[in-house]
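ARCHIVE CARD
Drawer: 12
Card no.: 0347
Subject: one protein chain, sequence and derived structure
Cross-reference: see card 0346
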Amino acid sequence: MKVKLIFWILLTTLSCACNEAQKLETKNGFAVITAAKRGEAVATYAGGCFWAMQECMLELKGVSKVISGYSGGTKPNPGYNEVLSKTTGYAEAVQVYYDPNVISFERLTEAFFNAHDPTQEDGQGPDLGPDYRSIAFYRSPSEKIIIHNLISRIDSINGYNRPVVTEVIPFKVIYPAETEHQDYYRRRSWDPYIRNVSRPKVLKLRKTMPYLIKSEYKD
């Protein structure tokens, strides 16, 4: 009995260590969108609820930070409830900070496509509406070409039996989400939504692209 108890204590400790929240800068209840560090690159994606997408991107080798936010709309400084109203044009998005010497933009974007269903229009699973739509933002002509090539590859394989509907648009701005939405997956692992909707997405990416997953997250 004591051996089992010790085992479960160690397992819980290790699990907590792997799921520590990021130390993100915050201001007035929102995360702060920071500039990339020297030698670092950034990429922005929208693929359904940002709780799952943030965790999926964080578990990739070469990724140092992921901030949840809102992109694709026009009104400055939107809030969660505004975006949820589906009238702002914004989608829940994530900004990924990564080392291009460890993971390329192409690999990162491939992981993005594997972390959600790019063929579902205006939604992901039970989350419906334009605020959950799929978007791949590009910052250069070469990134645009990479995204389109990946979409063509997915369409040619046709594993979904539906065409990819991911929007491919130039990046303009991402506004940070409220602090309560950052690292939600890690802080609220007991939440039924996280267990039943978010976690299957995370596990799918681990299974689909195990060679890109950091060792501490491999099952």
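Annotation on reverse: Confidence is low (pLDDT under 50) at residues 1-17. The chain is about 35% helix and 20% strand.
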